[in-house]
Amino acid sequence: MRKKIIYLVLTLALMLLLLLGCGNSSDNIAYKDGTYTGKSSEDDQGAYGEAAVTIDDNKITSCKYVTWQSDRTVKDEEYGKVNGEISNRDYYDKAQLAVKAMQQYAQELVEVQKLEDVDAVSGATIAYNQFVEAAKKALEEAKK
Amino acid sequence: MIRNRVLSDHSTEPSDLILPLNLINRTVPEKMSKTFFAMGTVMNLTFCGNYVQKALDEAAALISKLDSLLARMRTDSEITQLNISTNNRWIKVHDDTNAVLREALLYAEKTNGAYDPAIGALVDLWDIKHCDNRDEQELPDGAKIQETLLICDYRHIETDHAGHYRVLNSASIDLGGIAKGYAADRVYELCRQQEISSALISLGTSSLAAMGVKPDGNPWKIGLKGIDENKNACFGVVYLKDQFLSTSGDYEQYFMKDSRRYHHIIDKKTGYPSNSGLRSVTVISNNGALSEAYSTALLIMGLDKALSFQKSEGGFEAIFVTSDKHVVCTEGILSKFKFRGKTLGYHCNQI
Fold first, then answer.
1. Chain A interface includes B253 (CB < 8 A)
2. Using an 8 Å Cβ cutoff, are B265 and B250 in contact?
3. Closest CA to B249 of B272, B217, B283, B218
4. Which of A11, B106, B109, B275 is deepest in the core (most CB within 10 A)?
5. Contacts of B6 in chain A (CB under 8 A)
6. Residue B91 in contact with partner chain A when CB distance is under 8 A
7. Contact status of A31 with chain B (Cβ, < 8 Å)
8. Neighboring chain B residues of A134 at a CB cutoff of 8 Å
9. How many other CB atoms are there within 10 angstroms of residue A2's CB atom?
10. Are B206 and A124 an interchain contact pair (Cβ–Cβ within 8 Å)?
11. A138 touching chain B per CB within 8 A
């Protein structure tokens, strides 16, 4: 369950943070302070997920996720109860790492495409832990 | 406030502001891209034609909806509902879920289970997608692997062929080996219905679709990534037009133990990650779901069986990379494939 929660939080954090600048060629992306919300498409029953990420001084300071039913009641209390506590340092750190890595990944992909003179690169599926790992490497490099 | 899952939109051919907007939309084809996160990975869509922004938005919404139906990691998906259902209860599923499951069961049957949508319990046991450290991972208990193998069988997924399914014997459906391919099919279909003249659809880099040709009249150029995880260089290029391409490989999601690579593609015959001598398989066909399912199945089969299967089954072409960096192409793809791996240490064999 814990891994599922981490996965969900990372997914949302990536989704929202990428909204804020992935694909930008600059390495130093400045995020505007504020709270950004993302809403998933509705399922057949009209239920949807909504996430909110708060940016302060170019960092995520909170991330909350709630699944709503069509009548605006919370669909699953587990989401709100657990993911609402994203101030949890472990989740927070992973989300931060993933965001950094995703930016790096997007930039690398563009560079590879340019270098190889292709329109797209195909390979094994990139999964979220690769972004985290790439971020860890980048941070380790930065410490040297 | 941002209300969509959109990461970035780039218009590469800005409209001429002198013309009325409706005239521009009808006469000046646009080329736009959209990058966003779904299905646990990065999606990139490039569309050319008229009303491109609308088509991009609809495609992103479609992928998001498919994700919500098919993702095992989402507690509210239809696949999760099937996996947790008890008492052999039949569940009516959405048309898209029905279509994916129907294709998944077909390809499982054709590949004799090399591709198996009921592999979920083994995927969970190995949990390679979520391993945090590639050098300090423990192997699952051997007895537990054998026990889990028993429930990983696509024949435990039953359908009444009218949109109802049930899962028997605690099997767990995992559509990770077909869902992106199916999504590529659906986005391609959406483009056909809209005023999109050409498109390049890349879902997680593993499933791609090329609709039509590029605005300059040339086919889309798809670079095939090498098997060295630290190198992004491509060993070849496939020229793609109105076709789907999927790649499966062992070099992105894995951990190392005693000098052996344990990756995310599990061979159901052994319960362990595939060790067939193939490191990467790319399948090109007219069907995205088929391409994705077969790329996994062929990697598990190994080169000889995969080539026999390709000859007997037909309807698709393949490019294989062996563990000693031999690139092997089936005959039908040769005219569309350009090998560039010599300086990277690859050798190219033609069948």
1. yes
2. yes
3. B283
4. A11
5. 19
6. no
7. no
8. none
9. 9
10. yes
11. no
3-state per-residue secondary structure call for A93-143 = HHHHHHHHHHHHHHHHHHHHHHHHCCCEEECCCCCHHHHHHHHHHHHHHHH
What residues of A are in contact with residue B38 (Cβ under 8 Å)? 15
Contact status of B73 with chain A (Cβ, < 8 Å): yes
From first to last of the 144 residues of chain A, give the pLDDT tens digit: 334 444 444 454 555 444 433 333 233 344 556 665 555 555 555 655 555 555 566 555 554 545 555 666 554 333 333 344 444 444 445 455 555 555 566 666 667 777 778 888 888 766 545 444 444 444 444 444
Q: Which helix (H) or strand (E) holds B166?
A: strand B164-167
Question: Could you tell me if A133 lies within 8 Å of chain B, comparing CB atoms?
Answer: yes
Q: Give the Å distances, CA to CA, from A140 to A129, A133, A136, B230, B349.
A: 16, 11, 6, 16, 41
Cβ-contact B220, B229 below 8 angstroms: no
- What residues of chain B lie within 8 A of the CB of A8, using their CB? 73-74
d(CA B242, CA A79): 42
Q: How far apart are alpha carbons B32 and A50 in whole angstroms?
A: 27
Q: Do B204 and A38 touch (CB under 8 A)?
A: no
Q: For residue B52, is pLDDT > 80?
A: yes
Q: How many CB pairs under 8 A join A and B?
A: 174
Cβ neighbours of residue B44 closer than 8 Å, sequence gap 6 or more: A120, B33, B34, B35, B202
Rounded CA-CA distance A94/A100 in Å is 10
Which residues does chain B have within 8 Å of residue A105's beta carbon, measured at their own beta carbons?
Answer: 42
B221 touches chain A (CB under 8 A): yes
B contact residues 276-305, partner A, Cβ 8 Å cutoff: 280, 282
B340, closest residue in chain A (CA to CA)? A116
| pTM of structure | 0.74
**Residue B207 near residue B292, CB atoms below 8 Å:** yes
Q: Which residues of A touch B280 (CB under 8 A)?
A: 123-124
Question: Cα B71–B156–B160 angle (5° rounding)?
Answer: 85
Convert A18-80 into a string of H (helix), E (strand) and C (coil).
Answer: HHCCCCCCCCCCCCCCEEEEEECCCCCCCCEEEEEEEEECCEEEEEEEEEECCCCCECCHHHH
CB of B230 within 8 Å of any CB in chain A?
A: no
Edge-to-edge order in the sheet of strand B207-211: B6-11, B30-38, B41-49, B196-203, B207-211, B243-249, B278-285, B316-322, B326-329, B347-350
Q: How many other CB atoms are found less than 10 A from the CB of residue B266?
A: 26
> Mean of the pLDDT values across residues B311-329?
96
| ipTM of the complex model | 0.82
Return the percentage of chain B with pLDDT > 70, whole number.
88
